[in-house]
Amino acid sequence: MTEYRSDLPARPPRFLKLPIDERGFPVPWFVAWIDGKPDFRVVRERGVYTAFNQGLCWLCGERRGVYHAFVVGPMCGINRVSSEPPSHRECAEYAVRACPFLTRPLAVRNEHGLDGTKEPAGLMIKRNPGVALLWVTKSFRPFNAGNGVLFKIGEPTELRFYAKGREATFDEINASVNSGFPHLELAASQDGPAGRAALKRQRAQFDKLIAECFA
Fold first, then answer.
1. Which of 35, 107, 134, 185 is most buried, by CB atoms within 10 Å?
2. What phi and psi values does residue 48 have, to the nearest 5 degrees?
3. Could you tell me the residue range of the domain that residue 151 belongs to?
4. Contact (CB, 8 A) for 165 and 98
């Protein structure tokens, strides 16, 4: 069995039962195994539906409790939508501190060999936002996005931003938001003035949440 990497943070207790890949990273519950190897880019068959219907943590696979933790980018924080079900808070915090894609702002998603796999529901922004958002809430609900199921995230009970495996600075958050926001503006423009007005309100709400984090 491959040993756990010594340069990663300590695993939460629920992660101790997860297998370790050949690089020394734990393999989350949602990951699909292809030809005997985990492919972190691919979600296990019916993973989204199983996690939601059975109330499972997206990362460790055990039952969730009252609080639901989403790991999303700032753009998903603005529209409060996630393509993935939530996790335990401690599992989600481990992810933002240990996942290579989330801790390395310059990391690029490897698309090689993904032909024939299903894209996440909704409109995917294919970029590394550089900042990950840990959004903890007591409520969320699924909805049909036309090409799959998405999750509307409820009011936060806790909100934390991370960059490079540690808490993000105000400037890092603003840079991520400002670089990604044009993608949302382009999508909102397709809904005309009403869409642009709704996005403006969402941005104002999100900016207020950011300010409260640094108050």
1. 134
2. -60, -45
3. 58-213
4. yes
